[in-house]
Structures
1.
Amino acid sequence: MVEKIQHLEMHGITKRFPGVLSNNNVNIHLDAGEVLAILGENGAGKTTLMNILYGLYQPDAGNISLNGKKVKINSPSEAIQLGIGMVHQHFMLVPTLTVCENVILGLSKTFLVDLKTAKKQVQEITDKYGLAINLDAYVWQLSVGEQQRVEIVKALYRGANLLILDEPTAVLTPQESNELILLLKNMSNQGNSIILISHKLNEVMAISDRVTVLRDGEVCADVNTLETSQEALARLMVGRDMAPCRRDSEFFPGKPILELQDVFAKGDMGTDALAGVSLTIREGEILGIAGVSGNGQKELAEVIGGLRKVSKGKIVLNGKESTKMAPARIIEQGLGYIPEDRLHVGTIPSFSIWENLILKDHHQPPFAKRSLLQNRVIMSHSSSLVEKYGIKTPSLETPTGRLSGGNIQRVILAREITRNPVALVAAYPTRGVDIGATEYLHSKLLEARRNGIGVLLISEDLEELTSICDRIAVLYEGKIMKVMPVEETDERLLGLLMAGIVE
Amino acid sequence: MEGVMNSAIIISILATGIRLATPYLLAALGEMFTQRSGVYNLGVEGIMMMGAFAGFFATLHLGSPLLGIIASLIIGALMGLLMALVSVTFKAEQGISGIGLYMFGWGLSGLLYRLYVGGITSIDGLKEVKIPLLSNIPFLGPIFFNQNILVYTALALVPLSGFILYKTSWGLNVRAVGNKPEAADTLGVNVVRIRYECLIVGSMLAGLAGAFLTIGQANMYADNITAGRGFIAIALVYFGRWSPWGILLGSLLFSMADSFQSMVQVLGINFPYELAVILPYVVTIVALAISFGRVWAPAALGKPFQRGTRG
Ligand SMILES: Nc1ncnc2c1ncn2[C@@H]1O[C@H](COP(=O)(O)OP(=O)(O)OP(=O)(O)O)[C@@H](O)[C@H]1O
Ligand SMILES: [Mg+2]
């Protein structure tokens, strides 16, 4: 057993990527049993800093010391040996292996895998921290919340006593987040140190002891949680005061623009993911879809976008039946689409920013004339979008996959909204997005609403739904439980409906 | 009389079928390990040619087919190492590297043959080894238990590969590296090393498959003796959905059809000759068309690994 980490110090860390100074002379420190939150806008350099601590990147300058001794961490396996564990922003699990296999991967040094003993040991850990998971299930069968738990078990099984969590709650339901917070508290009480990256300020306030704020790769504040507030932290992060968006109460919806009539569709596992969904979205309104993810949300967005086959029922977009239309025709009919998987469905990661910005219109004027791309028009259009939507990037030529999560989201949003759609489907548009960008995105959705666009907003964040939607529908096991005006909802009622309980 | 004749023919077709399956099995099981780690090696055919030549040459000069086998394994390992260097360390496009390796093996084996052997020379190859008792079982005995050691090796490798892949730590690492190398890397699995090991093991088996053709079947070397078997072996990996038993099934399907067609020719059975010759290929194509799908493919197949890249 390695020496327990009593004190961690990262000193003067600098890391440069082509065209970006991702970390600039960053200092952080942490004691045993302490929970440190790291805050910062998208692209501030949080993930980079943690990847350095975990041995995935080497810093250009600066050093790391543990318990007063300088260490050089050349690879993740060295980090693991030092007692550092990390739960990555994008899950690092092998979907085709079982939970138990994932947990012991890389540790089993005997010729044969001793799954029996391993299972017993893993079970001890899950029992100790009250983490319920089926160890024999394949990872691809698990919900994101369960996958999250597997990630944590993985780190604990390696004897980690310093745990890094990079936006662990971004994809969790409110209930799952609460469970995770309890778990982390329990862990820190048992003497483990925790570094938590999150955009959710209420969580940060609830569990951290100290907060370090990064802005543009530099530390701009290091405060005790007890001596600060959500508003103060928001101001430190963004550099200005934040005003949460609310919809204006005037509400003049127009004619129905997107209608679903008794729609059925199969999920990836072949079962009915949508079982008779009927919805009507009118011009100039935002209809929210609440529900625990995995109840048909992904499939709902996909059938509307033409990416999934409708097995029964009918979809009408702007007066024309679009049930069997190809995605390209649906786009032509005026549907804007912000998908759940922004990195692989919404953009082509290896394409440059300007290419992704004109992805849906590259074949028509003003971007193309007689099949030739009009570079001057495209570049001026792209650079104005980059400026207007505040996309942080070294250049227009940068591959979109290199941007931080929140900035990729801005690229998609910029493209979809400027195409002037008649209806817009947004699936979890603020997942993993910082508060500044969230506020911005909400203001853009409200602007779209004012311009008469019908918006379907799928989200797990009840606060988001109740602050900008006109009506809210609750999706449970592929069925709509209820549709109601936002004034008639409250968190308790929504929570019950989301759990499938009708009063 | 009629009945005896028929069962003798059937036994002969089946025994030949098992024997003909050997090179496909060896090469395809090797390719399965390679692909399971996320690399596809299209150079199998070239490695087989080199293995065929090395096995033949060592047997010819050292007088022992066992040394021929060892020579083919060494040559296979060296070619695997070359492929690993190009496609894993230098991250060259795997398809192109594989085709390069194929052409290299093809050219070099032909050149060496012309330089050092020249004409048709036959060798004393591997002998059939009757397994006591088992080979006396009627019907099954002559089919399964009167073959040379490479045939036994290939058959034994089927369950053994399954065992290695699913029960050993190394197999677990291979499966992880082929599906999500970033995840394996963050857990301290050496992705590069696993891919090297798989390429080397896979290429050794391809070399052995080549040696089977010269020292286990033809007892001589001829230009283009592999006749596309390396490429068919790659197709069989897809057909077998990256599993040893699936590969066994595919290899047998193909080799039985092949054995049937040659028997048709030899015995002059009343069956259209042209149809018989293309039968094995038709069987493969139909089987591939029915079974094809990427669902079972290792998710990282064909993608070079680079720590710290996104998307
Ligand atoms: N592998 C890489 N190659 C090139 N640039 C990179 C790489 N990783 C990060 N960057 C750049 O470094 C900057 C910081 O990125 P990082 O992922 O650390 O941000 P973050 O604070 O984690 O943001 P988010 O909240 O969106 O996850 C960004 O501008 C990003 O584009
Ligand atoms: Mg990040």
2.
Amino acid sequence: MNDILRHKGWSWGFRSTVMLYFIVLIALPIIGVYTKSFSLGWNAFIESVSDPLAWKSIVLTLKLSLIATLINIVIGTMVAWVLNRYRFIGRTILNSLVDLPFALPTAVGGLMILLLLGPNSLVGNWAAALGIEIVFHEPAIVIAMVFVTFPFIIRAIQPILEELDKSEEEAAYLLGASKGLVFFKVIFPVILPGVLSGAMLAFSRALAEFGAVVLVAGNIPGKTLIASVYIFGEVESDNPQGAAAVSILLLTLSFLILWLVNRVQMRRNAK
Amino acid sequence: MRKLLIPLTYLVFLVLLIVPLIKIAFGAWEDGVDGLIHAITRPEAVHALMMTGLIVIVVTLLNTLFGVMLSIYLVRGTWLGSRLKQLLNSIVDLPFSVSPVIGGLMIVLILGPSTTIGAFFESIGFKIVYAFPGMVLATLFVTFPLMVREVMPVLQEIGTQQEEAASTLGAYGWTTFWKVTWPLIRWGVIYGVVLTIARSLGEFGAVLVVSGNVMNKTQTATTLVYQDVENFNVVSANGVALILVAFSVALLLVMEWSKKRKGVH
């Protein structure tokens, strides 16, 4: 048996199979989208992208993702700090709960928001009485994005906070600095790379989010239609070229972000 | 600060995670026990859950096998040049930054009924898009990086010393792998498996585009939830969602547990 397994052909076979699988599964589809979007020529591409509804959906996605990311930077930094620095009842449970949005199907996440804030719900009725519309409007989309991207920034900062050298902090206190000053002058600069790479990951995830958003957004073209839902609509209405054209705008942006994150992380590792 | 920040953190968790979870858990009982039982024993619900189960099993098996092998090649393989390795290494992450809808679209574009490859497979009676194979492909694409990203760092960390010692003592490739490498990377692989299961259980966008979401044919649990909500059948959606939530929470617990085990080794 071992003699057969040691034959050179086996390792060749394995190597080619794995590489082929990799290329067919990952690289080929991505090339496919890029070629498809230009399949009807440059003009058709420009036309698909400059369609006012397509354009509006992209701008809306960028805007809302940015808001969601900013919210997550604030609450993520706070949560990571509290979970790392303070010992209190329920800390370990909260720490495990952070990953919940990763484990939960995004469609279920959308359903949760719908049940909690939607029409006929307690909060939904209050908000409606105050004249605020949440579900099927922009706030619900932001909430969905915040929910889905919640773990990224926390998980990016936590390892840095754990490794943080306390002596610098203590030196600052000894020199008479206030707590706030120490945080912003001593601690924040150190965790900043983590915040940034977490924020970029969260941003690119928010750009791509579909499941949670599609259920709560209402998907009104030009108003609450985000890019991924727009792409879905184009596929459904049998316009693959238009879908591909908007897709590659989003894709290129995400790849750019991914590349930046890698750069930031590489620089940190090199230090 | 402490007195302010801890309650604030609790508030964030309550509003964002705990209250929604409780709401899902109780909302499913709105029509009583019968309503819940009806929601999850509908033929379409049973079919959708089975479809999801099948996809999870196939995807997890394939991804584990190929993910572990690819990680070993990318970390240990001397037959790949270092530049090529770097390139492949960065390609691994691409599915993370691709919107699931776009992931589904890619498969429709390449293998759809109107393409050459798709038409060829259709002519020999093997339907890919709008059928099970396409749904598996879409989920494979989305979950691909999870295993590789878990196993590669472990392989890098353990180094080659023990493996080299084993082969110096005359162990063959397979023996070295099973007796030396596998016990060291085992917890990383298990963690990767849990992540893959969680992601493929919950995959929605890519599957929705590829499957066409045909009831009792290509509908999965998540796309059924979507369809129920679209049909204003929120309580039924909630019943199916409750099952998904139960699995996700269980997976989260396993994740925590294997994370600890991983830390020990």
